[in-house]
Design goal:
By secondary structure, this protein is of the alpha/beta class. The protein has a domain of 190 residues: Vaccinia Virus protein VP39 (Rossmann fold, 3-Layer(aba) Sandwich), CATH 3.40.50. The protein has eleven helices and seven strands. A seven-stranded mixed beta sheet has the order 3-2-1-4-5-7-6, with helices on both faces. Strand 4, helix 6 and strand 5 form a beta-alpha-beta unit. The protein is globular and about 55 Å long. The two termini are 21 Å apart.
Length: 272
C-alpha cells in the first residue's frame, strides 16, 4: 500500500468524523427492507463467507446471516459498529463486526466468497485502493458486488444540492463516479473475468412527510448533519428548505407519508 500524504490522512480523519456524526442506525432502520431487497437479488450458498464492506450498522450482514451466510462487517464509523455488535448479541446472531478502513482491511487474501458493499465503499476517498482491497480478500471465482448511487438519480441530485452550499473535498473524486458505468468498467478492468452492471430503483419509505425526513437527516445522517454544522443560521434554513423541496418533488406518496425511489447502479464482478 502506498504511503498516505498528510493531506490524505487529514481527509480520512474528517470523513471518519463525518460518518460518526449523528446516528446512522436511526436512518438505516427505515432502509432495512430496501437492503434486504438488494441482497435478495444475489444468490449464494448456505455457509458461504460474506464480507459487508462499509457496512454501517449491518444492513447486509444481518439479512445475509438469516439467509444462511457466514457474515463479517467492517465500517469506519465506531458508533455504527458498536450498534451492530449490540444488535447481533441481542438477536443471538454470530456476526463479526470490525471497525476498519475499506482501503486497508484486516483480512487475509482470498478470505471471502462474496464481498458486498451497498452504498458504502463508494464514499472512500481512494477508489483504486477500494478496488484492490475488495479483490484481494475475495477468492477466485468469488464475486465483488456493489450498489452505488448514480449521478442522475435522486440521491445524486441531493448530493449536488448539498454541494452548492458546502463544496465537497477537492482531494477525493466524487463518490457518484461509482454510479457511472463507464468509470466502473475502467476501475474493474483488471483482476475480473466477468462484469455485469444493472440499474434499478432503490426505495425510500418513511411514515412521515418530507419536512420530517429532512429533519431526520439533519439530525442523524452524518454528511447532512456536518454540512449544516458549517453553515450559519440563514444557510441552514435555505439548505433545509431546498432539501425539503427536492424530497417533495420526488415524493410519490399521497397519504402524508414519503415514498421516493433513487436510482442505483448494481455492480457484479467475478474475480479471476
Amino acid at each position: 500500500m502506498s504511503e498516505m500524504t498528510l493531506e490524505m490522512e487529514t481527509l480520512k480523519s474528517r470523513l471518519k468524523a463525518t460518518w460518526n456524526a449523528g446516528n446512522y442506525g436511526t436512518i438505516a432502520r427505515d432502509l432495512e427492507s430496501s437492503a434486504a431487497e438488494f441482497l435478495g437479488r444475489i444468490s449464494f450458498e448456505h455457509g458461504e463467507c460474506l464480507l459487508d464492506v462499509a457496512c454501517g450498522t449491518g444492513q447486509i450482514a444481518f439479512p445475509a446471516v438469516r439467509a444462511g451466510a457466514v457474515a463479517t462487517g467492517i465500517d469506519i464509523a465506531s458508533n455504527s459498529i458498536e450498534q451492530a455488535r449490540i444488535r447481533a448479541q441481542e438477536e443471538g446472531l454470530n456476526i463479526r463486526f470490525d471497525e476498519g478502513d475499506a482501503e486497508d482491511m484486516p483480512y487475509g487474501d482470498v478470505s471471502f466468497d462474496l464481498v458486498i458493499s451497498l452504498i458504502g465503499a463508494m464514499f472512500a476517498p481512494r477508489p483504486e485502493r477500494v478496488v484492490a482491497e475488495m479483490l484481494r480478500v475475495c477468492r477466485s471465482d468469488g464475486r465483488v458486488i456493489m450498489g452505488n448511487w448514480t449521478p442522475e438519480g435522486f440521491i445524486g441530485q441531493m448530493f449536488k444540492l448539498v454541494g452548492k452550499y458546502v463544496p465537497p473535498p477537492s482531494l477525493m473524486p466524487s463518490p457518484l463516479m461509482w454510479g457511472d458505468e463507464t468509470i466502473v468498467r475502467e476501475r474493474l478492468k483488471m483482476g475480473v473475468k466477468n462484469l455485469r452492471v444493472t440499474k434499478w430503483m432503490y426505495p425510500f419509505q418513511y411514515p412521515y412527510q418530507p419536512r420530517e425526513v429532512v429533519k431526520a437527516y439533519a439530525t442523524y445522517f452524518g454528511p447532512t448533519n456536518r454540512a449544516l454544522a458549517v453553515l450559519d443560521e440563514e444557510g441552514q434554513e435555505a439548505l433545509c428548505n431546498d432539501l425539503e423541496k427536492l424530497w417533495a418533488e420526488h415524493n410519490m406518496a399521497t397519504d402524508g407519508t414519503t415514498f421516493v425511489e433513487a436510482e442505483i447502479l448494481e455492480v457484479v464482478a467475478v474475480r479471476e
